[in-house]
Amino acid sequence: MKISSRPQTSIRMVSKKFRLLYSLEDKLNSFIERSECDTGGIDTLQLFFDTDLTDADEVNILDLKGGILQVETSLNWDEFSQLKFSEQQVEFINKIYVAVKKVVEVYNLSQDMYDEAFKELLNEIK
Known about the structure:
The chain is of the alpha/beta class. The protein has helices at 12-35, 77-80, 85-106, 112-125; strands spanning 2-8, 44-50, 59-65, 68-74. It has a 4-stranded mixed beta sheet, covered by helices on one side. Helix 1 (12-35) packs across helix 4 (112-125) and helix 3 (85-106) packs antiparallel against helix 4 (112-125). The protein is globular, with a radius of gyration of 14 Å.
């Protein structure tokens, strides 16, 4: 399952910041692919970070079509923008992890290999 995230906002700085974080997403996708994680027929997890959602751990599973599962989660830009870049990297990965964990739970997939992929990436960036 490839992860593809994008901000869902009108705040221009969010898009600029996300461009700096996409290399982490690429690394995570490499770790997931190498770990041969259970996908349950989900080819791509399209994750939208919504700055209008207020609950810190909100994850809404929207739609699965043609192997692409759309999910939205919250991003408190006021808090996120105040973090140092290294902290933003960790927060970005943790937000993706919360969403993936929810998908794994709802679609009854095996969690272990995803945990390993996230752990490997977090160890690399810390």
